[in-house]
Structures are given as structure tokens and as C-alpha cells.
Design brief:
9 helices; Jelly Rolls; 462 residues; globular; 7-stranded mixed sheet; alpha+beta
């Protein structure tokens, strides 16, 4: 036992030493790299913080890296940014920051709520650092002031106003340390008529974000016998999720006289760099619902739903110091449009992909790839409606996920563990949440024709 502990400690020490060496190298801007960057310009001008970089930082970084923010350092001005410039360059070049894991140049790239920097923004930052990260001359200008949202405000408030309906879970205390907890209260919606959902966001209240691993919500309706029975999924939340927007012309129904069954997974102390490590008293999770006016369901042609699509058959097992991969295949007896894709796993999951296989032609189309997945930043990738995958009857959704239980996985708490499928944070899961608009053949052909017409107009303008 002691030998095993000593070996584990040695590996951890070596890993920490290597990480420090890499960080030290990243934080050192050599004279050679400065010389190489000296001739890099934008429109003939030297790249400076004042002229080119400050606005990028203000627009994309300060929202988290500010006083009271969740980022580990403040980046509100040049004096704060300059010491971290080499590390910033490395992180953005590796597309680790901003934290939105979705591979570039693979499959669909037009997403709603996309936090990624553009190629030009990344090139600007890395070139600026390579030439010594100069501040430049502000002249009569003042540094840009970021438009910072209230961290307690709803994500869609600017777009849609305040939610039509807010449903709170019942409060629960979360201890500073302990085992995983689950909280499953019921909440009445109070709606007297069926309503269509325009947008939805789940938000842990206050400073509890890091202790809420996930918060799923199901809808139940009363049957003729006066008993509640399952109706369908309302939404899903996991750490870092932005929210969902429903495409126009479809209806995700919230039925009248329904209740919501919460399934909230809590992790005492928290997970990730923002974990409070303290007792969270009266922790509440809220779901905000923006609803279409009454009667919208009569004009919406198609229905949308969100469901959990499982990967693999049998039990998921990742051996110590080993890896695993799962696959799932799903098809429909009618055409559909895939509106969003969100893979799910825990600490050993590293990557995921979504493809469509067309049996009639044998062709496989790659839709989305996430090669550096993190359990602390779950994203529901919302495809722009005019590019969301249109799937004909019988085509197959192919879902794949990869797991790494080795010391090479920086999120792995202990590679000596046997990891199996389960609900605990230390266990693993293998599924994806997918929002589907269910079409008929006529509607499918109409959407295809609309896209072809838009393509022809684009070609004509070139």
C-alpha cells in the first residue's frame, strides 16, 4: 500500500514539475521571439495594446477576469494584462480561452452563443506578445470600458427582457465537504394554458454555481385518474451552460397545469477553480422561461423536444491508466432538424463528436467535433437555424465520446481508480443532449428548397 502511495505521489510530483516547467517556458518571451515579432504589423502599424489588443480583451476576457469575477486574475487594464501576456498568448493560441470547446474548421461553425475568438483576433494577440507586448500610445483616447453584464442577471435579458416565468427549486444546504448529493423537489408551474417556450436558462442562485454539477428538469402532467405522469424533458443544465433558444416557427410545449420535477446533483465544496469550499446555505436553482404569447402553438407548424441520447451498450468501464471510447446510433422514421448538440460526461471524458450517416449513399457527414472537452464548461452548441442539420428519414445520428483515465488527463483526480458508469462526479456518463425539431416530408423539402435558394442568391452576389 505504501509503495503504491509513494509511486502515485512521485507521478504527481513529476507531473507538477513538468507543468511548472511548461508554464515557466510560456511566461518567458525570448529576445529571439521579440525580434521575430518586431516586423509584424496590422495595416502597416506596429501591433500595440492600445490600438489592437485592448478591445479584444475588453470584449472577451474581462467578463470573467475582473474584480469579483470567476477568473483567477484581473485583466481590466494594461498593468494587469502585461505580466500575463505570454500565458494569454499560449491559452488563446491553443483555443483554451475563452473556454468554449468546439473544434475550428470541422463541420458546422455557425453557432449561437459562440464564445470563440476569431483567427484574426488570435493572430493579433500572439503577434503582439511576440514583439514584446507594447502598450502603445493612447493619445487623447481612454481605454475601452467593457460592457459587463450583471453576473446575477439572466443571459437572455438583453435579447428578450426578463423571463415570463421563473421556477425556483426548494432551498437546500450544501456542506463544505462530503459525498455527492441529489435534490429532487417538485414545483408547480401555475400555467392555465399550454405555452410554447422561446428560450430557457437554468441558473444556480448566488455563489452556488460550482457546487451544482447538473440540474435537470422534467415535466409531469395529471392524467384522468388525478395522478401525475411523465410528459417530457423541460431542459438540462450542467456547469457552464449558457441556455437554449428555440428556433422561430417551432414549439417546445410547456403544458397547462403541469409540475416540474427537479433532479439536482450537488457536489459539496464545489468543482473547478471557482469552488467555494464553504457551506452554501439555502442553495436554490432557478429556471427562467421566456414564453411565446398564448395561441402561438396554433401557428407553430412543428414541435421540438430535448432528449437524452445514450451512447454504447452495456456498462462503461475505464480501467486504471487506460482509455475507452463509446458510440451511439439513433435514427427516426420521419425527417428532423437537429437544433442543438451537447455531449455529457464527467472528469475522465476528453472528446466527443457528432456525425450523420446516410445509408442510401454510404456517406458520413461530420457535424461537430469537441477535442478538448471539460466537465467544468458544458456547452449546448446551438446551430444557427439556416445551417442546422436537416436529416432525412432513416439517416443515422452517430455519436462518439472518448475517455482518458491516465495521468495525461489534467482533469483526472486519480488514474489508479477503476471508473464505471454512474451518477457520482467520480463516476462517468456517456450520453448527449440533443434538441430535435420533428418535420414531415413536405416541411423537410421546403426547408431544403429555402436553403438552395439562399445558396443561389449568395452565388449570384459574388
Amino acid at each position: 500500500m505504501n509503495n503504491k502511495h509513494d509511486e502515485h505521489t512521485r507521478r504527481r510530483s513529476m507531473k507538477s514539475a513538468l507543468a511548472l516547467a511548461v508554464l515557466a517556458a510560456a511566461l518567458g518571451v525570448s529576445a529571439q521571439s521579440q525580434a521575430q515579432g518586431a516586423n509584424l504589423t496590422i495595416n502597416g502599424e506596429q501591433i500595440t495594446y492600445a490600438d489592437h489588443v485592448a478591445q479584444i480583451i475588453a470584449d472577451n476576457c474581462v467578463v470573467c477576469h475582473r474584480e469579483g469575477g470567476i477568473g483567477p486574475m484581473q485583466l481590466s487594464n494594461y498593468e494587469q494584462v502585461r505580466p500575463w501576456a505570454p500565458l494569454i498568448s499560449m491559452r488563446v493560441a491553443n483555443r483554451e480561452m475563452p473556454p468554449y470547446s468546439y473544434d475550428q474548421h470541422i463541420g458546422i461553425q455557425d453557432l449561437q452563443g459562440d464564445w470563440r475568438l476569431s483567427d484574426d483576433e488570435i493572430s493579433t494577440i500572439t503577434a503582439w506578445v511576440a514583439q514584446g507586448a507594447p502598450e502603445g500610445d493612447w493619445g487623447d483616447r481612454t481605454p475601452p470600458v467593457p460592457d459587463l453584464p450583471d453576473p446575477n442577471e439572466w443571459n437572455f435579458a438583453d435579447q428578450f427582457g426578463q423571463p415570463t416565468l421563473v421556477l425556483d427549486s426548494t432551498p437546500i444546504d450544501v456542506p463544505a465537504i462530503g459525498n455527492d448529493m441529489w435534490h429532487r423537489p417538485y414545483v408547480e408551474t401555475g400555467l392555465a394554458t399550454d405555452r410554447c417556450i422561446k428560450a430557457i436558462q437554468v441558473k444556480p442562485a448566488g455563489n452556488a454555481k460550482a457546487v451544482v454539477h447538473h440540474a435537470n428538469s422534467d415535466v409531469e402532467v395529471m392524467n384522468a385518474d388525478g395522478e401525475y405522469e411523465p410528459y417530457g424533458q423541460l431542459t438540462e443544465y450542467a456547469m457552464g451552460k449558457w441556455g437554449e433558444i428555440m428556433p422561430e416557427g417551432v414549439c417546445r410545449v410547456l403544458p397547462a397545469h403541469a409540475r416540474v420535477r427537479w433532479d439536482i446533483h450537488l457536489f459539496p465544496g464545489g468543482v473547478g477553480p471557482t469552488a467555494p469550499g464553504t457551506i452554501i446555505e439555502d442553495n436554490v436553482v432557478q429556471v427562467g422561461l421566456w414564453l411565446y404569447p398564448e395561441g402561438y402553438e396554433n401557428t407553430a407548424r412543428f414541435k421540438q423536444d430535448l432528449k437524452l441520447y445514450r451512447l454504447g451498450e452495456g456498462e462503461l468501464i475505464v480501467p486504471p491508466h487506460g482509455t475507452a471510447m463509446t458510440q451511439g446510433f439513433h435514427s427516426f422514421d420521419h425527417p428532423v432538424r437537429v437544433d442543438s448538440f451537447q455531449p455529457h460526461g464527467h472528469l475522465r471524458m476528453r472528446a466527443a463528436s457528432f456525425e450523420i450517416y446516410y445509408p442510401e449513399t454510404g456517406r458520413t457527414e461530420q457535424i461537430s467535433q469537441i477535442s478538448n472537452w471539460s466537465a467544468t464548461w458544458h456547452h449546448s452548441h446551438l446551430y444557427e437555424p439556416d445551417v442546422a442539420p436537416l436529416v432525412p428519414t432513416g439517416a443515422v445520428l452517430v455519436l462518439k465520446q472518448w475517455y482518458d483515465n491516465t495521468a495525461n488527463n489534467p482533469n483526472n483526480p486519480d488514474p489508479d481508480f477503476w471508473v464505471v458508469a454512474g451518477s457520482r462526479t467520480a463516476d462517468e456518463m456517456t450520453h448527449a443532449w440533443i434538441a430535435i425539431t420533428h418535420l414531415d416530408e413536405e416541411g423537410y423539402q421546403e426547408l431544403l428548397a429555402q436553403r438552395e435558394a439562399a445558396k443561389q442568391r449568395s452565388v449570384a452576389r459574388q
